[in-house]
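stage 2 :: seqdesign
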């Protein structure tokens, strides 16, 4: 399965608002929350392995 950066970005952006909201609840600072989500994107985009979002480990 080939990774598409545009597809990854679209998926990530569709989750950005709830991620920022969750980070804000944890940190209490909007700027830090946005930075945390941006860092998550950079890690996601730079990953070396595919992620299967259908697999859940509880």
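stage 2 :: out
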């Amino acid at each position: 399965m080939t990774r598409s950066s545009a597809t990854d970005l679209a998926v990530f952006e569709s989750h950005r608002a709830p991620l920022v909201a969750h980070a804000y609840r944890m940190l209490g600072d909007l700027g830090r929350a946005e930075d945390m989500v941006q860092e998550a994107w950079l890690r996601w985009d730079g990953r070396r392995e595919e992620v299967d979002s259908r697999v859940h480990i509880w």
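stage 3 :: structure notes
- Residues 23 and 54 are 23 Å apart (CA to CA).
- The longest helix spans residues 5-27.
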